[in-house]
Amino acid sequence: MAVLSSLRGLVLMGLAATTALAEPRVLHMPITRNANHPGPLAKRASPSNTAQVTVVNDISYGLYYVNATVGTPGQELSLVLDTGSSDVWFFGPGAYDPKKSSSYKLLNKGDFEIQYGTEGSDVQGDYISDTISFGGATVKQATMAVAYQVAQVPTGIMGIGFDTNEAIVAEGGQPYKSIIDRMVAEGVISTKAYSLWLNDLFSSDGNCLFGGYDTKKFSGNLLSVPIQPDAQSGQLTSMTVAWTSLSLNTGSSTKSITPSNFAEPALLDSGTTLSIIPEQLYDELHSFFEAQDDESGNAIVDCGTLDKADGTLDFQFGGSKGPVIKVPFSEFALPATTTIGTWAQFDDGSYMCVLGMQPQTESDPIILGDTFLRSAYVVYDLDNKQISLAQTIFNATDSNVVEISKTSPVASVVTGVVVTQTASAGSGGVVPGEGGSGATTGGSSFPTETAVASATNSLGDISDVPTSTATSSSGGGSGAGATVHVPGLLLSLQAAGLSTLIGGALVALL
Ligand SMILES: *[C@@H]1O[C@H](CO)[C@@H](O)[C@H](O)[C@H]1NC(C)=O
Ligand SMILES: *[C@@H]1O[C@H](CO)[C@@H](O)[C@H](O)[C@H]1NC(C)=O
């Protein structure tokens, strides 16, 4: 994974926090993405031979950052918001200097160590306690880590998963109070729950709402499915749900491409940029989208073709009554940039995109990362042990925030489908970065064959799709439960910048 040099370009800005009112408590965190994507206007005379153009996977379309300040006085940091891990850590001096914080306390020197899904990643440092503020909220004496040795991880991370997934647990230790636990303990929010609205691929803002959800950011009803346990421990350790069908919807017709008994544990992980799906499904979609692999294993597609097709991939969870999320084809087309920062093109001038999914390999969990998550409004309710999903409304501007409490969960659980998460590899998870060595920086060279690809794709011909099982496309269900209107506090996230270029690397922070 490349070092995100662009992070230095981030400037912390005042957060639009409304005054905290007494009750109930919700913390609202806007996410901003770097809108600085390579659009057609960025097009330049491409190098004389298009075939020599190097494409790099551009992760500016994934990974979401939160602005935070740590210490007293506050030191400004940008951290990746990660539902797939549970520790908060940041780089030491240069980013955070403990000596400059009067509220810093050393807890355990040298004891913090974590690896993430990205190959070769490793972070080591000290457990500390200090004050952290984000979105207008302040959490004192939060247990975090300051890193002194970091490999293959671009920036500090705010892990917001279960405390059972803290790095210390993998090493035989007892969990400490996670940042979410501390937020509840300090009365910032009243329940361990948060909602993520990542918004559209090309939009510059989205948000994370702690303690509540926003009824104006999704259509239809939120439907809940139980969070699934880890097979070994039987405990809830990850944001795993039962994924029970995938349908290919071309606008005019819909076909399921999963067998009727399909039920797989799938991690909803904001810290993974792509989606990792079973190989067979991947192969079908790869051919449906007429993708071609470059030598690093990136599946390259014609952006225009995916953009024009009205189709969606419809993911259903928790069985036939569960939530269905329709992901527009275009959300799976991530612009491929050249090493000089322009948008890579085929010989005929059409634009190249990287298909935003990868095949699962044996030990990988299935991960529905940012390419899936942007189309969903997702409420992660750790207290009620459920995840609620609804179709997102891209670019929604209205807001109506509702608090979640133990006694008023979002919606009742719609399903009994149970799967267990068997794929796991210690605290950090496994490496989904196959076919491109997660550690590559700077880009991969693009093979001639791929660059001369034809531009005559014809998405929409559903007969191209091998398997077919009748689909049950139910989307209805019971309405949302709680309807308490509450004031919100705003907190922000931001996506990585354009200069973050990685060759064939999938950024995965499990
Ligand atoms: C984070 O801080 C940077 C620098 O001020 C700012 O540009 C960005 O908009 C902030 N992000 C959010 C989500 O507030
Ligand atoms: C949302 O806004 C972005 C830019 O602000 C735009 O590119 C995108 O097409 C919009 N999405 C939808 C679905 O309208």
Automatic annotation (TrEMBL):
PROSITE patterns: ASP_PROTEASE, PEPTIDASE_A1. It is a lipid-anchor; GPI-anchor. Residues 428-441 have a biased composition (Gly residues). Disulfide bonds join C303-C353. Gene3D superfamilies: Acid Proteases. It holds the Pfam family Asp. Residues 1-22 form the signal peptide. It is found in: Cell membrane. The keyword Zinc does not apply. Residues 64-390 form the Peptidase A1 domain. It comes from Talaromyces islandicus. The active site is at D82, D269. Residues 428-447 are annotated as: Disordered. One of its GO terms (molecular function) is aspartic-type endopeptidase activity. Keywords: Aspartyl protease, Disulfide bond, Glycoprotein, GPI-anchor, Hydrolase, Lipoprotein, Membrane, Protease, Signal. This is Putative aspartic-type endopeptidase opsB. It comes from the Eukaryota. One of its GO terms (biological process) is proteolysis. GO terms for cellular component: plasma membrane; side of membrane. InterPro entries: Aspartic_peptidase_A1, Aspartic_peptidase_AS, PEPTIDASE_A1, Peptidase_aspartic_dom_sf, SAP-like. Belongs to the peptidase A1 family.
